[in-house]
């Protein structure tokens, strides 16, 4: 029955286009995908970047891993398949934000390259900006902001990235931020500079030749 219902679902085109929404906002939309180990500083950096975007009057929104698991992805675990489904859903939500003309910042460990590439494939070329928040495992453990590494080391948390589950570093991220070496302010400046150079922070209407 479920398959029969799915076969009858047809995509309904919208009257207002993504380009029109971007033009109204005055800037392009994109996904800033922050990936890295727990404790690397993804959420802190994503929120700092959004603060600056907001100060400039740009439409933006942060999707945070922990926050999303309180609602949309409540009930998903941390095994490989649930992690994949977690990121698949976020990729689809991020795509909607891009279509809405918003710069969306996602802060998720997203440990598997294939899942991040799937999220990239959902939006147009140039609209997915992978930001690798690079931080040595030892430093993440030293910070241990949420006390999770201690629990993982004691065996109280299974499938914990970096300890009992793998993290696959990005092959060719658009940006690498060394959070153990760069300050938040320096990292924000680098990210905003990239967005400016990529033409994300303004909208230039294309003219027919």
Give a written overview of the molecule.
With 209 residues, the protein is α/β, with parallel strands linked by helices. It has helices spanning 2-7, 18-25, 42-55, 65-68, 80-99, 113-121, 137-143, 148-153, 184-197, and strands spanning 30-35, 60-64, 103-107, 128-134, 175-178. 42% of the residues lie in helices and 13% in strands. Helix 3 crosses helix 9 (184-197) and helix 5 runs parallel beside helix 6. The N and C termini lie far apart (51 Å). The model has no long low-confidence stretch (mean pLDDT 89).
Keywords:
five-stranded parallel beta sheet; single chain
* Number of distinct beta strands: 5
SS element count, helices = 9
Global shape = globular
Instruction: Give the terminus-to-terminus CA distance.
Output: 51 Å
Structural class designation:
alpha/beta
State the order of secondary-structure elements, H for helix, E for strand. HHEHEHHEHEHHEH
Rg from alpha-carbon coordinates: 18 Å
Q: What portion of residues belong to β-strands? A: 5-15%
Query: What's the story with the biggest beta sheet?
Result: 5 strands, parallel
On the 0 to 100 scale, the average pLDDT is: 89
Model regions low in confidence, pLDDT < 50 over at least 5 residues: none
- State the share of residues found in helices, binned by percent: 40-55%
Strand order in the largest sheet? 2-3-1-4-5
Topology:
Blueprint: H1 2-7, H2 18-25, E1 30-35, H3 42-55, E2 60-64, H4 65-68, H5 80-99, E3 103-107, H6 113-121, E4 128-134, H7 137-143, H8 148-153, E5 175-178, H9 184-197
Parallel strand pairs: 1-3, 1-4, 2-3, 4-5
Helix pairs in contact: 3-9, 5-6
